[in-house]
Amino acid sequence: MAASRIVIENCAIATVDAHDTEYASGHVVVADHRIESVGAGPAPGHLENVVRRIDGTGHLVTPGLVNTHHHFYQWLTRGLATDHHLFNWLVALYPAWARLDEPMVRTAAQGSLAMMVRGGVTTAMDHHYVYPRGTGDLSGAIIGAAAEMGVRFTLARGSMDRGASDGGLPPDFAVESLDSALAATEGTVDTHHDASFDAMTQIAVAPCSPFSVSTELLKQGAELARRKGVRLHTHGSETVEEEQFCKELFGMGPTDYFESTGWLGSDVWMAHCVHMNDSDIAAFGRTGTGVAHCPSSNARLAAGIARVPDMLRAGVPVGLGVDGTASNESGELHTELRNALLINRLGAHGESALNARQALRLGTYGGAQVLGRASQIGSIEPGKLADLVLWKLDTLAHASIADPVTALVFGAAAPVTLSLVNGRTVVEDGHLTTVDEEAIARDTRSEAQRLARIAAQG
Fold first, then answer.
1. pTM (2 decimals)?
2. Please, how many CA atoms are within 13 Å of residue 438, restricted to the half-sphere of its CB?
3. Which of 28, 57, 140, 196 is the most exposed place for a label (fewest CB within 10 A)?
4. 87 exposed, middle or buried (CB, 10 Å; 0-12, 13-18, 19+)?
5. How far apart are CA 298 and CA 346, in angstroms?
6. Mean pLDDT of the 359-379 span
7. Phi, psi of 32 (to 5 degrees)
8. How far is CA 260 from CA 179, 207, 219, 251, 286, in A?
9. Confidence tier at 239 by pLDDT (50, 70, 90)
């Protein structure tokens, strides 16, 4: 059967390939679910079976954005504990999170996904680690919401086995036992992980953090992931308090502790990595360990400024993350392009820290690297999967900015005219095409209120 083709032309294009190839006016041809061609000028003539032809005048085409760290469930607790640092924020919110059930988790996933996808995300990720006993199939609910949205998705199946009685932060009834966490994680991998080139759902093994999991869970989790051939994810070096916790409990800093448990490697990525010294960064670069940089969340919780320029110079793969919507209430990744650039310029490297094209690379190809999918997504190249975004840059908000990449990164949030995942339209003229946005808004308000009532009852 002849391939169905979509043609986008007369648009600026930032391919984010190895040479940062750009076209002031060019075309992209999609054949079924892959990119067939990209280049300057109009599309080749006499293409067969063109089912849609799009005039991209006034637009910029980029690879779809790739989110590398999130907590969807936090959609239901936005706007709370707004003046707390990380540990106090966690203590304030864990009592509510420990009351989550399957309907709440599915609705929160729908809300979180809707905000990201509407804003140009084509590959999403969720680190879900709260599994209260007897609350249903939470992993299945999240995966189902992503499938319904039509977004490419990685579920980092998290876990916690260090409750308050063992010196951890979460309440005891919100954690799993070591054996049950490992068994449930393995079951999730066996049921849902797809290793194929065009996979829509993948699973990572993801114990939560050094202060909420045991050393044994980290060690056995790493062994499980490598036995199953999947990636590993956790939080690392997020705050000064975490570093103090690790030194007091384990006699070493977070990076050394992770290395002692098998948690450095090219199949690992960690969220935040704010408080890392030269030796830590060198270890990540040497081992190919990735980083999910979450600038808005780091600022919201006053965690600090991650040394992203130094990481990039050391060869560390770095992508961008929204982080949970209780520490980044906008829930959007495209704003992180701008925030990554601006916040890093407040650090030691000043105005040379990051430029617009480096920021765009973090949100696209860098994210694909971190998720282990750089051969499939993250740049616009023939043979790669057709995950693309068409940004509208001819409105008042960007009218006087000549360079389209500068307009996208430095300027106001650009409207999304079209977003494709696997060649399928998921956003059209700024609206989701696969789900009812108003219904999701109603459901999330209702579930947030229900969670607040249950948490108040204790």
1. 0.97
2. 0
3. 196
4. middle
5. 13
6. 98
7. 55, -115
8. 21, 15, 9, 12, 15
9. confident
| pLDDT band at residue 8 using 50, 70 and 90 as cut-offs | very high
Half-sphere exposure of 332 (CA within 13 A, CB side): 14
**Three-class SS string for 363-384?**
HHHHHHHHCCCCCCCCCCCCCC
Please check whether residue 70 is in contact with residue 113, taking contact to mean a CB–CB distance below 8 angstroms. no
Distant-in-sequence, close-in-space partners of 369: CB < 8 Å, separation ≥ 6: 290, 317, 319, 378
C-alpha–C-alpha distance, residues 413 and 110, integer Å: 22
Check: CB of residue 60 under 8 Å from CB of residue 277: no
Upper half-sphere CA count for residue 148 (Cβ side, 13 Å)? 17
Q: Return the structure tokens found at 392.
A: 């509208």
- The pLDDT tens digits of the residues spanning 84-133 come to 998 899 889 988 998 999 999 999 999 999 999 999 999 999 999 999 88
| Rounded-to-integer distance, Cα 63 and Cα 384, Å | 10
Reported as a single tens digit per residue, the pLDDT across 258-296 is 999 999 999 999 999 999 999 999 999 999 999 999 999
Buried b (16+ CB within 10 A) or exposed e, 393-428: beeeebeeeebbbebbbbbebbbbbbbbbbbbebbe
What confidence category does residue 211 fall into, taking pLDDT thresholds of 50, 70 and 90? confident
Q: Please tell me the predicted confidence (pLDDT) of residue 207.
A: 97
What pLDDT sits at residue 259? 97
The kind and range of the H/E element at 445 are helix 437-457
User: 211 and 217 in contact (C-beta within 8 Å)?
Assistant: no
DSSP per residue, 316-375: --EEE----TTSSTT--SHHHHHHHHHHHTTSTTGGGS--HHHHHHIIIIIHHHHTT-TT
Taking CA atoms, 455 is separated from 76, 142, 162, 450, in Å, by: 12, 22, 21, 9
What is the predicted pLDDT for the residue at 69?
98
